[in-house]
Predict the 3D structure of the following.
Amino acid sequence: MPNVKRLHFWVSGRVQNVGFRAYVAQQAWQLGLTGWVRNRGWDEVEALAEGDPQALQTFAAALQKGPSASRVDALRQEEEPVTGEFPRFEIRSSR
């Protein structure tokens, strides 16, 4: 897929019970990204997103900031091969 990237994110800190997943989904929808977000344990949220590289850069900056009630202590990201498997961006159940 030309000009499309896939990034996998792990965000840790105060990211539970602060609307973090909804915030992430809203950012992805506004940027036209596809993929998902879910909780992992008490202090980590995981997200996978595909789309325009510039949009992904903006998305990563939004993840680093988080919603106002959150506190992001660390953001880790890894680039992965694009699959195009997601029709939209969704909030998934916790893992």
Strands lie at 5-14, 34-39, 44-51, 71-80, 89-91.
